[in-house]
Amino acid sequence: FEQCGVIMRTKFLRDKFSGKSKGFAYIRFSDVVSIELALKLNESLFCGRQIEV
Predict the structure, then answer these.
(1) CA 34, CA 12: separation in Å to the nearest integer?
(2) What are the pLDDT digits (tens) for 19-40?
(3) How many angstroms separate the first and last alpha carbons of the chain?
């Protein structure tokens, strides 16, 4: 998502017992324009998998 703009923070969610990824994350951008660009990536492919934004 760095092509969308400056990323201020990321948070990857994990199962608190197993430590395994839950398969999603939160990304905080520095401005609204970056958010709008990121939303355009909805249903695109990332590492061969379709993502939801």
Answers:
(1) 19
(2) 999 999 999 999 999 999 999 9
(3) 11
